[in-house]
Amino acid sequence: MTIWITRTRPGADRTAERLAAEGFDTLIDPLLEVRPVAGALDLSGFAGLAFTGPNAVEIFAGLSPERDMPAFAVGDATAEALTQIGFRQVHNARGDVAALARLMIEEAKGRILYPAPAEPAADLPGLVAPFGINLDARCIYETVPVPPLRALATPDLEAVMIHSPRAAHLLAEAAADRLSDLVGLALSDACAAPLRTRSMKSLVVAPFPDDASLVRLAVDTLSKAR
After folding, report:
1. Over the stretch 41-61, which tens digit does the pLDDT of each residue have?
2. Which residues pair with 36 in a beta bridge?
3. Beta partners for 102?
């Protein structure tokens, strides 16, 4: 019984570690690859930073030595990544982009830089602008599709984990012939939506949009099938 992890690295490695601790075998075969698209960042005039995922933190770490500004994180994994690279003022929204927007509306002051992906899953600047938050989005990375190299040739796949809506769309196309044999484990309703019209063994959604909740969902769902 193997769980296919489709998320990008290094996040996929953290998910695999959590599942291994619960006794599950995993196959890391990402559907997306993260690539930097920016040079050094000029942080002059900014009073804080906003991050919507660990990938942004990893790319930012290679672009700027800044670690003293307040940093707003969408959830636990992002907050942990910020702490690991040396940020001391980390504000954790513990949720999704909407939760991050609410946190920033309550606590952000001054001009905020948002090191963003080329194709954000949600419009963070649009959520905070009506409340007077000066958020400047700068694209620092892109995620590009990559074909699954091993997963489709692995006979004992039991389930597939979906961490982003874009990965879900790619999965629906790349693994169309295998979906009926797989349990879909989605991080959120948005991640599940592209697969709802596809025939799967089952499709379940984590109660909270974070990796720990998704792993717990996998344990609870797949343990019943053992």
Report:
1. 899 999 999 999 999 999 999
2. 141
3. none
Amino acid at 1: M
* Cα–Cα dist 78/16, whole Å: 17
Helix (H, G, I), strand (E, B) or coil at 108: coil
Q: Which two tokens stand for residue 120?
A: 């954000």
Q: Tell me how many helices (H) and strands (E) the chain has.
A: 8, 11
d(CA 205, CA 122): 18
* Structure-token pair, residue 44: 């002059």
What are the backbone dihedrals phi and psi of residue 57, each rounded to the nearest 5 degrees, phi first? -65, -45
Q: Report the interhelical angle of 211-223 vs 76-84 (nearest 10°).
A: 130
Residue 137 CA to residue 75 CA, distance in Å, equals 19
- DSSP code string of 26-89: EEE--SEEEEE-------TT--EEEESSHHHHHHHHHH----SS-EEESSHHHHHHHHHTT-S-
pTM score of the predicted model: 0.79
Q: Is the pLDDT of residue 166 over 70?
A: yes
